[in-house]
Amino acid sequence: MTFVDKNHGKHRVTDGMQITGSDDWWRGIAGPQTEALGDAYRVTFWWRDPAGSETTSPIRRVWIYITGVTDHHHNAAPQTLQRIPGTDAWCWQTTLPASWRGSYCFIPSERDDDFSPQLFNGEAPDRALLREGWRKLLPRAVADPRNPQSWKGGRGHAVSALELPQAPEQPGWHYREPVSPAPRCIEWRSQRLGNQRRVWIYTTGSGADRPLAVLLDGQFWAESMPVFAPLAGLTREGRLPPAVYVLIDVIDNQHRGVELPCNRDFWLAVQEELLPLVQAVAPFSDRADRTVVAGQSFGGLAAMYAALHWPQRFGCVLSQSGSYWWPQRGSSQPGVILEQLQRGELRPQGLRIWLEAGVREPIIFRANQALFAQLRQSTPSVFWRQVDGGHDALCWRGGLTSGLIQLWQPLRRGQQHALNEE
Fold this sequence. Notes:
By secondary structure, the chain is α/β, with parallel strands linked by helices. The chain has helices at residues 23-27, 127-137, 218-224, 228-237, 253-259, 264-281, 298-309, 336-342, 362-375, 393-407, 409-421, and strands spanning 33-37, 40-48, 61-66, 82-83, 89-97, 101-109, 150-152, 158-163, 184-190, 195-203, 212-215, 244-248, 291-296, 316-320, 352-358, 382-387. The chain folds into 2 domains: 6-163, Immunoglobulins (Immunoglobulin-like, Sandwich), CATH 2.60.40; 184-421, Rossmann fold, CATH 3.40.50.
C-alpha cells in the first residue's frame, strides 16, 4: 500500500488540462480510478472535502476502511487519505489483484488520535486495539458520494463497491427489476424466545413440494442488498428450482450475538413456531435434502449448528465466513463445532455443505479450512470455495446464489429426468 504523491495536485492532468481539485476535474471523478499493472490494478481513492482546503476545513484525517485490506480482519495498520495541499482533494492509493471485489468507506475525522499510537509503531498491530478503534469510528462512516453502487453494510454503516475487471461471476446479481409476486413481510411473535421480529417470505413457482431456504440476517438480504430479483432471475433461467425463501430478521446486534452462535432455543423456535406459520401461507417440502440454511459470519456458524443438530430437518448448509472460532476469540484452540466433530459428538454424514471463506479474513479463513479438512473425512458432499476477499457482503452475495445453485443441483437433475421421461 502506498500513498499518492502529495505533489500530484501541483501539476495538470492530461485529460482536458484540468487542475486537480477544480470543479471541472471533480466532475470527471466517478469513484475510484484504476490503472492496469500486469495482472493487478493500481487503484486511487478520492474524497472531496465539503469544507474546502486545509485553510478552511477542520478535517485532519480521512480514514479508509477497505474490507480485507485495511480492516481489523486483515490486521493492517489504519490508513488515511492524504490531502493534496491547497485543494479540497484527499486521495489514497493501493494495488489490488485484477480479480478483486470488495467494499470500502471513508471516515472523515477532526482528530489525530482516533487510534492508539501503538498501532503505528511498524509492528503487527494489536488486533484488540485495532478492532476497538474501528468499532468506535465505523458508525461515522460515509459511502463514496461519487460511486453510485453503495448500500448500508451489515454493521449499519454506509459502504461502496469496488469490482475490478476479472472479479468472478456472481450469478443473478445483474437482475434488478421488481419481482412479482412481491415478498411478504410478516411479524413473528415467539413465545419461546420472548421477542418479536420481521420475517420475509418470498416464493418462486408453486407447489407444496417446493424446496425451502432459510436465510439468516434476513433484514440485510431483504432491504440493504435485496436478493429477490437475483433469485427470480435464476429461477427463470432454470438454474434454481421454484422455492420458498424465508428471511429472518436478527432484531439487532445484541439479539444476533445471542441467538445465532449455537443457540438451541432459537432453532427450536424456528422449527416449532416459525416454519408452521410459513407453511400456512407458502407450502414447502419437509424433506431435509430440499432444505437449505444459509448464513454469514455468526449466521454461517448458526447454519452449520442447525444442520448438525437437526439433520432430519435441515439437510443442506450454506456457510459463508462462518465464525468457527467461536467461542474462542483470539485463541489458538478450535471452536466448539470443530471440537465436537473431532470427538465424534456430531455427525455430518448425509449433509450437503457449501463452505466458503475469504483469504483476507485470516482467522476465519484458517478456522474454515480446519473445519473443511474435518468434514471431508466423512462427508462426500462438501463444497469448499475460497474467495479473494474479506468479511464482506459484496463477496457473500455471489456465494449465496452460487451455493444455492450447487446445493439444489440434485433437484434440477431430478426435474430434468422427469421431463425426459414424459
